[in-house]
Design brief:
By secondary structure, this protein is of the alpha/beta class. The chain is about 35% helix and about 25% strand. The longest helix has 19 residues.
Length: about 250
């Protein structure tokens, strides 16, 4: 599939109103004819509107052919709930990390997660399909797109699914080159803005904490810059950054 533009979007965490602002701006500029999206996971939890956030991700994937969703560690729990394989320890871990916000968004917060999984399959089959079809990673010739990161001690072809969803220690402080540039979310950047390092591009800008979601823009497999949408007490803004993550424009949304 020869699509020149690729847009990677970092952690959303149920912040559907911010995602809507970001997508509105991106869709003005990029066409389904030559663009695909890679959502880097954690669509759900923590924020208030996981259901509408998932609706928006489904719409983009259905409209921009070749687009994919990478499975995040939070998404992993919902997928297990939907296929009725969520273990008790996973259930407790999920609910303690924002899962209740997602269940409330779906109106499935009565405490019966088996019943919730069955209801989700019955009422939102497209959502279930989205999570079932989510990939562990996505790669191009130069870039490796993943939710959390990679194990520096393993080749990219031999990465464990758990590390791709969860890793921090050993990855974030690794400074040597990888086989490809890693593009990831999962760990909120110290600056709460997109960051470009020698071996990785980090675009988790703290959606549920900052009201900011970031997209990395690639053309012909080369990073061209970033677009961040943010909504806070001061209003709505769209900020643009160049390929070195230096801000070049900040516009108040209409």
């Amino acid at each position: 599939m020869n699509k020149k533009n690729l847009i990677a979007i970092g952690d959303i965490h149920g912040m559907a109103h911010v995602l809507k602002l970001l997508l509105q701006n991106l869709e003005k500029e990029f066409s389904p004819d030559d663009t695909r999206f890679v959502f880097l996971g954690d669509i759900i939890d923590r924020g208030p509107d996981s259901l509408p956030a998932i609706n928006q991700v489904c719409r983009i994937i259905d409209t921009f052919s070749g687009s994919v969703m990478v499975l995040g560690n939070h998404d992993f729990f919902l997928r297990h709930m939907a296929d009725l394989s969520l273990a008790k320890d996973e259930e407790d871990r999920w609910l303690a990390q924002g899962g209740m916000n997602t269940l409330e968004s779906y109106g499935l917060d009565d405490g019966d997660l088996v019943g919730a999984g069955k209801a989700l399959r019955r009422m939102r089959p497209r959502h279930v399909t989205l999570f079932e079809n989510a990939v562990s990673h996505f790669e191009t010739e130069r870039h490796f797109f993943v939710h959390a990161g990679v194990d520096p001690d393993a080749p990219l072809s031999e990465q464990l699914a758990h590390d791709l969803m969860w890793i921090r220690r050993g990855f974030l402080d690794h400074t040597a080159p990888f086989e490809k540039m890693i593009v990831h979310g999962h760990s909120i950047t110290p600056s709460e803005l997109p960051e470009v390092h020698s071996n990785r591009i980090a675009i988790d800008t703290g959606s549920y904490r900052t009201g900011r979601i970031t997209a990395a823009i690639f053309h012909d497999d080369v990073l061209r810059g970033f677009v961040s949408a943010e909504i806070d007490g001061d209003g709505e803004r769209v900020r643009r950054f160049d390929a070195s993550a230096q801000e070049v424009e900040s516009l108040q949304a209409a």
